[in-house]
Amino acid sequence: MIDLYEHDPQWAPRFRTERDSLLVAFPGCFLGIEHIGSTAIPGLRAKPIIDMLGIVGHLEACVPVAAKIDGLGYMVRGENGIAGRRYFTREAPDAIHFHVYAEGDPRIGAHLRFRDHLRANPSSRREYEALKLRLADLHADDRAAYTAAKSSFCAEIDALTLARRSKEG
Q1: What is the number of other CB atoms lying within 10 angstroms of the CB of residue 25?
Q2: What is the value of pTM for the model shown?
Q3: Strand order in 75-76's β-sheet?
Q4: Can you tell me whether residue 147 is helix, strand or coil?
Q5: Average pLDDT over residues 105-114
Q6: Alpha-carbon dihedral 34, 142, 46, 122, rounded to 10 degrees
């Protein structure tokens, strides 16, 4: 079952608390940690999982993280199907998905552009939420299919934001 919840204003403080604990636990490791995904977008329904994007200079910086992050309640997932990513998860009740990429990876920009576009554009946010609700019903027992079915919308938004930026030049 894919349960989408009304936006919880506590998601942003939960992100900041977790980001700060990771920055303390791994000093100098991360160039930045961003809140991404639906919980990062006020007014958008979401699964109650905080998605975070960590940026490192090189993926080798993740070696000490992988060796020690279990002490913070995370599971080490390796690439988990996405080459060039390191992935760590913590399960409910404080579920977190931590995606780590090396600086310059194009997926960093795609995640941030998508988040920023939906934050700034209520009509896109409503369209995305309607899509998520339809897909949650359609793929209630298949989270991978639910996620894959959202990808074309995400790609369209990214293309739109890139086109707009090139015009603004």
Answers
A1: 14
A2: 0.94
A3: 32-36, 50-56, 96-102, 85-90, 75-76
A4: helix
A5: 97
A6: 90
Bridge-based pairing state of the strands 75-76 and 50-56: unpaired
d(CA 77, CA 81): 9
| Per-residue DSSP letter, 55 | E
Do residues 48 and 95 touch, judged by C-beta distance below 8 A? Answer: yes
Q: Number of helices (H) and strands (E) in the chain: give both, helices first.
A: 5, 5
CB-side neighbour CA atoms (13 Å) of 21:
12
| pLDDT tier for residue 168 given thresholds of 50, 70 and 90 | confident
Give dist(CA 81, CA 18) in Å, integer: 24
What residues pair up with 96 in beta bridges, in sequence order? 50, 90
Assign residue 78 a region (left: φ > 0; alpha: ψ between -120 and 50; beta: otherwise).
left
User: Using an 8 Å Cβ cutoff, are 98 and 11 in contact?
Assistant: no
